[in-house]
What does this fold into?
Amino acid sequence: MIIKDRDLVLAFRRSDTDDDTWQCPQGGLNSGEEPLAAAYREAAEETGIPEADLKKYLKQYPEPLGSFPEPLAYELPSEDRSEKTGRGQVHHWFFFQFRGSDNAIDVSSGGEFRAWQWMPFHNLLASVVPFRKHVYEHLYEWFRENINESGAEKANNGAPSGSA
It folds into this structure.
């Protein structure tokens, strides 16, 4: 999860669906890759944001901003399962402070997303697909002490909302 000014979360709209759901970047581990290294790699691949623009928080969910203390899982609806995704996914979650410019955010090269937007965490909770919602609720409850809830005023006041 990429956080800006402690009150906005960077959210993305998938390119393979027309619905109005949003999510955070996520991805798999390569063989032998550590979860934190994978998080930096996936952020760069999916968003264009280089590691240098991300500062890891001190708390961890599972252990690094940090990171959430344990992996979180969700099960995909049967119609969304594939050989690649299987029945669902298990993720390590890390929280990063965004230190770069919005100009660094580029969803066009990764192909997974078609738009991005900074939004308050509670707005993300309201717009995530139902099968992932419990994961985002756990993340919110765990991390909320580090978030200012005032992001609503800043989210759409001229900050770019990118689209590919």
